[in-house]
Predict the 3D structure of the following.
Amino acid sequence: MKWFHHFTKVLPFALALIGAKWYSHAQIPGQSYFDNTGYIEYIAGNYPLIISVPHGGYLEPVEIAYRNCNGCVYTRDSFTQEIGRSITQYFFEHTGHYPHVIINLLDRSKLDTNRPIGEGADGDPIGEQAWNNYQNYIEVAKTKITQDFGRGLFIDLHGHGHPIQRIELGYILTPDDLQQSDPTLNTPFYINRNSTKNLINNNPLNLMHSELVRGPFSFGALIDNKGYPAVPSPADPFPNDNEPYFNGGFNVFEHGAHFSNTMDAFQIECDQDIRINGGETVREQFSQACAIAIKEYLSLHYGVGTIDFDEDGVLSDQDCDDFNANINPNTNEIPYNGIDDDCNPATPDDDLDGDGFNNVDDCDDENADVNPNSDEIPYNGIDDDCNPATPDDDIDGDGFNNAQDCDDNNADIYPDANEIPYNGIDDDCNPVTPDDDLDGDGFNNMDDCDDNNVDINPGTNEIPYNGVDDDCNPATPDDDLDGDGFNNAQDCDDNNAGVNPNAEEVPYNGLDDDCDPDTPDDDLDADGFNLVDDCNDNDASINPNANEIPYNGIDDDCNPATLDDDLDADGFNLVDDCNDNDASINPNANEIPYNGIDDDCNPVTPDDDLDGDGFNNMDDCDDNNANINPNADEIPYNGIDDDCNPVTPDDDLDGDGFNNMDDCDDENPYINPNVAEIPYNGIDDDCDPATLDDDLDGDGFDNAQDCDDNNANVNPDAEEIPYNGLDDDCDPATLDDDFDGDGFNIAEDCNDNNANVNPGLNEIPYNGIDDDCNPATPDDDLDGDGFNNVEDCDDNNANVNPNAEEIPYNGLDDDCDPATLDDDLDGDGFNIAEDCDDNNANINPGSNEIPYNGIDDDCNPATPDDDLDGDGFNNMDDCDDNNVGINPVTNEIPYNGIDDDCNPATPDDDLDGDGFNNVDDCDDNNANINPNAEEIFDNNVDENCDGLIEVTPTKPETPVSAGNSKDYLYIYPNPANDFIYIEKWDKYQFLVEIYDVNKRLVLRKFNTNQLNIQSLANGIYFLIYYDEMGERIVKKLIVDRK
């Protein structure tokens, strides 16, 4: 896009920086540098951006005095330093460049670098040096930016505590300035007051002053679009009356463009929701959003850096419309929309086949052979000449083309015609529709006895008993097919002459020979099963439903699989099998000992006492060994229960739970591994030679010599350790306590090396020693208020200490802070005896009386506060209390712009009451004529006061070449319905914005000749046209859907 280019013009600028030796060396972008006081930090930059953070410092060095000036503000802009650093980092992440950043590290109570030096440093020499260094850093950064880029932007970062949670942007313009209308704000008077004057006079988008301050491309709009409300901005164009607002301080005023500086400047005041209430998370989110908004602002208005404003992935230097994500080089061209979608003019948008006809006239714009100049070719299914009136088919005019009409030369023959039978012609062009053989059975009318029924013809078999001559042969019988003299109604099988009511029933042949169902043919025993299923049809007790009776030799249930013998199917019948119900018991089974069952059907096979020692398994603990049984003798230590008696011990003869292997004395139950060694008895009680019986502590002295044989550190060779309560050397004569000999041992004496310190002495205050060894006796903080003598300015008065609240006018330094005022609380230089309101610095004998505020500002009741003009009416009733000629009893003088009688109901202007005054209303005596009136065409009256007599619009055939810039821009229709069209006679890129009467932007389009305005309600709008050559045209637009 042409609009977003890099500036190459460098404005001449020079700055002499005197005494700045601290800036004599080359600096690395992003690196911090500090001035010679150490209180000003400069982060070097390489971009035309300066960020100043004057009020975010924390340091309060004692070498710099606290500021104490009349009217000074000391409150820190909390967390602005952190936000400034985060913006710097995010800006680098998004651009690869660093801004120049200057940070005051001092608390505002020590130094304010956003005030003149006298107020900012309050005369402190170090503070003044730091103040000068802060401003010098700014000047150095400005010089570098001017040299490298020609111009740039200075941002002063602050935080406000106002109740409205919004960002306040300060351009030095006052609330009254911002409340002006856009045309007024766009006059030189207000432009020259703006601290971004350079940008207003030279910006790539050719935006007006009001648009840069509160328009859609203003910084307020960019930050508001990211979720942070701001004033001024499109959503909040100005602060209302009585709303607090900071419009920019000393730094913006000093370094802004309104003083012919090369830098533009504005102030950002962050609200408390951003800085404090939302915590670190919100601060970081805002910092990133702010960094992006600054990047966008610089790219849009200063031409530095490229952005992807519409976020379509293509940067602005390659995107021909960076405000429309659907338009970029990566997009496919959409034919016929009048837009260069792919940013490639060579890609055709119309006349795609190149035959010289566009889409409106060409019925097939992808085929060059089809256009209004081509000849129509019959029967090719194509409208070659794009004229539907030229016939391509249906020569006979019967409504059917050649593909459908089987005879296109006969209008009586076509698909919708009725087929006429037997005329030999395909009347309906459907070969399927028969002309003869109407039933389609292959026999024509001459041979077919019913040509309407496909089932009746000479080729069909006669269907008996239907009363129809199916085969067209009367000789074929239709009933009594077997010729036995009985027809189908009487004969149960008309195909078998042997079956009829006169025949005899033949059993088991499966036929009802006599056609009588009551005569049985099967199941002669009447048990419900016929011969096929019944294995004995002469015995009703034998059938598939009968239960099998074992061992009777009969197949009772007619199922050979059901056993009659050998019920357990183990291969042995009842004669040989001693249990025919258990397949595991039979002569071939192995005897299972001790189960009490004759498993092998052999009583001789033993089931118990397998070793034959006379004891069965229940009494014999090993039935496979005849030497082991209850009569055997127990053999010790062989690991076998010989006598089958667990009570008889085989091991552990002393019964102490340990066998012979582990027990060193198996005949004494008190000697075993679980017994505790008894010292000094000469016995290995625990069967562990390693456990000592004497000299238990292993210090080389036995019990007779060692006074503590359980502590290796206590023996005759040990050194006595004081105060441990032990006779370390086993010598009672060696002292263990009361080394200072004051009669108190260490338990009572808090210093046993000083005889002057013990519980019998008096406490000496403030010597830092607990003389009486009693922590409850105060050595400091005698008044018990929690503060010692160093901090407490009166240690004998518990109500005076650093935590106490200062009580005004009592003559005491209650909080031990000389800076907290006891009198003259508002710091206006007047104490309570002279000051009638000591809580308001604006009220004192030195103040000027402010009329009408109901306050005695100068503490002088004699100074008037109301009726300043002395006309007998106070300010509440007098609309101009400085003019005696203006009051409720004065007559109103029209058009003088003054409410002479102080009655808004009396018109001074807008005499016709249509809402427009004489300046805007071209006929103030006719309420139907005003700027909001609807223009009536062709009546020679300018109803809407736009200076034009409207006529019914017609689209001009050729461009108008008059001198007025409006002549080459034509908008129609107007009034409009759902669409408007823009006709212009140049090829410049352009922007169109539509605003409602409340100056709200309702539509914006780039390079679009057809605008969809269906979303706009009926009413009056203003259309503003901009092009890349700087042309700006305003047209009034009326939307009227009747």
Remarks:
- Residues 785 and 798 are 5 Å apart (CA to CA).
